[in-house]
Amino acid sequence: MNESAPSQPSQVAPEPPAFSIANVLVVIGPILLIFVGGVGIYAFFGNPLSMLGGGKLAPIAGVATIGGEPIPGGIVRTEHENGLPGALGSIESDGTFKLFTEIKGSAIDGAYLGNHKVTVSVFRPPAGFGPSTLVSPEEYADFSQTPFKVTVGNTNEPLKLALEGDPIPESVVNGESGGGGGPGGGPGGGFQGFNDSDLKMDKDTQDKWNNAV
Q: Across residues 37-58, what is the average pLDDT?
């Protein structure tokens, strides 16, 4: 009697995994979380660089004097300790100034929050072709030497920059040709593409700071 060979179990093809929202979330969840978190940080802080101690701008203005007299023109510049862009402002004939920060070619009112070094430079414009001449003390125009520092917060008192030295007559700043000493008038220059009028303080702000100082 012949015995039949044992039958082999039939091969069953595995079923493809069923579609599941949970499986999809496992894949895209981390990406979505990073995206939403990035948007949230930007919306809250205004700029990812705020994690470095800055990121937001705050208005700040003040007055610059030398020998107890208002400086009749020149440039105030700042350098942020965390490498954020510094601010710049044109000194008016009464010594007042208002700081702006250049962002993508636009002069934005204010300076980044955080600690800044501050310099003051006053130039005599050239009579003809050639560079302008620094007429204020050199130490106040150099970030490595300046004694001036400011911590920019959400609200700021007027910044008082009192230089030691002899007062500078307005005629020196204007020069024989009548040229001004505003941004772009000397080494370091001002904002690219901006006129002096772009950096001037509006009347209401100027009255406010004049009364405060």
A: 57
